[in-house]
């Protein structure tokens, strides 16, 4: 029976010792501590439950004993409540009734203990107290020496005008206003070709081909007849006959110089050398010598390439920053060292559903006709800088996990508050804060990974401690 009682008392002693050590475990080993027992009964009338280590270490004994240094273990009486008196060697106790919640691993590992202990390297576990701001769920506390070693930098959120150049890819296109189609307004036969190759350059007025057209021949005969009647009759009412004959030739596309030549000379040439209506480069030639052509057939396609278009595909999300008149720099893959400046002249009214892009037209000069249709180009739109300033922070201050974005607000003395924010536009290395941050608040801009890791660690430790308390 005595053995059973002794074992029972020893078990109670271990449990009470754990509770007692929980109250003073934040004292380092070897600290000077004094114990006073608040009880009205004398020591002789009270039952000794067990004996504890005199240094406060988590060691107990059911019988009196000495530690390795020869110091006697201290008795713990039934019903006693240990009260600790702070000493100069133990400044932590001067903080009053702060209760140690648990002890965390000194290396930051997710390992906690309800009682003091050491890690595998002999380092003491660090006490975590109730009410610590670093564990209130809203702030993170990092030691000042760690902040200095890792190079944590802060700066205030400020009002800035954010400008982000819009980039797009495009292709060279012919200026549609400088494109000319050569076609006859009457049937005819090609008797000779003066421009016989695609890509040949022509100037306005130069002959392209020689053609015989029965309809043009008949119109010239009518003009000669009207001119002869005017000379013979010399009546005012014959003027309209001459004008009518000349107008018929104009309707057939005959050049004005040829009409006056026939009228003044009185000669009816059998063929006509058809002049180029505009200067440019022959992009297409669809006739050969001796061919019969019909009215309206496309014979040549001539384009003036001194100015060209660049059609850029702009993402739908960037369209709000672009408008007619916006300057743009165009760099062609064939001439990377020769960027060309241009302006936006038109924004097409439809969105391409396959790519969710909008075509934007830019006009650029083409000296020497180096730019060829369908060339690839990189386009940078220089959006205007007349926007209103907004609250912004450096992009390096944003911690983005894909579902939410946060910034770390510096509270001073190594305390940081992770705060969710809502982001807006970006530009010049900064990002707009639409919601969650005020102008002037100090935020972390470098080494955010350190504080973020510390926050995650403390969250894990808090979870572990709650689980320990439930147990």
How would you describe this structure to a colleague?
- The strands form 8 sheets. Strands 9, 11, 26, 27, 28, 29 and 30 form a 7-stranded antiparallel sheet that branches. Strands 12-21-24-23-22-25 form a 6-stranded antiparallel beta barrel. The protein has a 4-stranded antiparallel sheet with strand order 13-20-18-15, with no helix packed on it.
- By secondary structure, the chain is an alpha+beta fold.
- It contains 6 helices and 31 strands.
- It has 4 domains: 2-97, no CATH class; 140-161 and 388-470, Beta Barrel (conserved putative lor/sdh protein from methanococcus maripaludis s2 fold); 166-175 and 304-381, Elongation Factor Tu (Ef-tu), domain 3, CATH 2.40.30; 184-297, RNA polymerase II/Efflux pump adaptor protein, barrel-sandwich hybrid domain (OB fold (Dihydrolipoamide Acetyltransferase, E2P)).
- The longest helix has 23 residues, at 2-24.
CATH topology of the largest domain: OB fold (Dihydrolipoamide Acetyltransferase, E2P)
Amount of beta strand? 35-45%
Task: Let me know the number of strands.
Answer: 31
The profile of the biggest β sheet is:
7 strands, antiparallel
What is the CATH architecture descriptor of the largest domain?
A: Beta Barrel
- Could you say which overall geometry the principal axes of the C-alpha atoms support? rod-shaped
The Cα radius of gyration reads 48 Å
Helicity range: 10-25%
**Number of helices in the DSSP assignment:** 6
As for the number of domains, it is 4
The helix/strand class is alpha+beta
Low-confidence stretches: 1-43, 81-96, 133-137, 464-471
Give the termini distance in whole angstroms: 32 Å
pLDDT averaged over residues: 77
CATH class of the largest domain: Mainly Beta
The CATH superfamily of the largest domain turns out to be RNA polymerase II/Efflux pump adaptor protein, barrel-sandwich hybrid domain
């Amino acid at each position: 029976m005595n053995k059973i009682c002794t074992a029972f008392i020893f078990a109670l002693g271990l449990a009470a010792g754990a509770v007692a050590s929980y109250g003073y475990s934040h004292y380092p080993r070897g600290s000077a501590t004094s114990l006073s027992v608040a009880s009205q009964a004398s020591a002789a009338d009270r039952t000794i439950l067990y004996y504890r280590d005199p240094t406060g270490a988590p060691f107990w004994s059911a019988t009196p004993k000495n530690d390795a240094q020869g110091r006697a273990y201290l008795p713990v009486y039934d019903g006693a409540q240990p009260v600790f008196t702070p000493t100069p060697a133990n400044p932590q106790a001067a903080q009053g009734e702060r209760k140690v919640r648990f002890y965390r691993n000194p290396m930051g590992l997710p390992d906690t203990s309800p009682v003091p202990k050491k890690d595998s390297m002999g380092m003491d576990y660090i006490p975590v107290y109730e009410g610590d701001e670093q564990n209130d769920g809203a702030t993170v506390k990092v030691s000042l020496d760690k902040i200095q070693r890792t190079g944590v930098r802060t700066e205030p959120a400020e009002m800035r005008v954010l400008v982000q150049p819009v980039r797009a890819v495009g292709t060279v296109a012919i200026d549609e206003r400088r494109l000319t189609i050569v076609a006859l307004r009457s049937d005819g036969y090609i008797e000779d070709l003066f421009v016989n190759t695609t890509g040949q350059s022509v100037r306005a007025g130069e002959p392209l081909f020689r053609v015989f057209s029965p309809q043009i021949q008949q119109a010239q005969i009518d003009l000669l007849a009207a001119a002869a009647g005017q000379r013979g009759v010399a009546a005012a009412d014959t003027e309209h006959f001459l004008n009518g004959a000349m107008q018929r030739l104009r309707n057939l596309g005959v050049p004005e110089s040829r009409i006056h030549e026939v009228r003044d000379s009185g000669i009816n040439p059998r063929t006509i050398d058809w002049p180029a209506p505009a200067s440019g480069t022959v992009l297409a030639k669809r006739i050969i010598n001796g061919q019969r052509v019909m009215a309206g057939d496309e014979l040549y396609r001539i384009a003036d390439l001194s100015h060209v278009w660049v059609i850029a595909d702009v993402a739908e999300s960037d369209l709000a920053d672009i408008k007619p008149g916006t300057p743009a720099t165009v760099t062609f893959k064939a001439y990377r060292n020769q960027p060309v400046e241009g302006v936006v002249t038109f924004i097409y009214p439809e969105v391409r559903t396959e790519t969710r892009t909008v075509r934007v037209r830019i006009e650029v000069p083409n000296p020497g006709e180096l730019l060829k249709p369908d060339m690839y180009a990189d386009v940078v739109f220089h959006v205007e800088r007349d926007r209103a300033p907004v609250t912004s922070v450096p992009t390096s201050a944003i911690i983005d996990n894909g579902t939410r974005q946060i910034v770390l607000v510096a509270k001073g003395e190594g305390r940081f508050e992770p705060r969710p924010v809502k982001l807006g536009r970006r530009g010049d290395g900064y990002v707009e804060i639409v919601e969650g941050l005020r102008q002037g608040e100090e935020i972390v801009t470098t080494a955010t990974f350190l504080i973020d890791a510390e926050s995650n660690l403390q969250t894990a430790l808090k979870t572990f401690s709650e689980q320990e308390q439930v147990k």
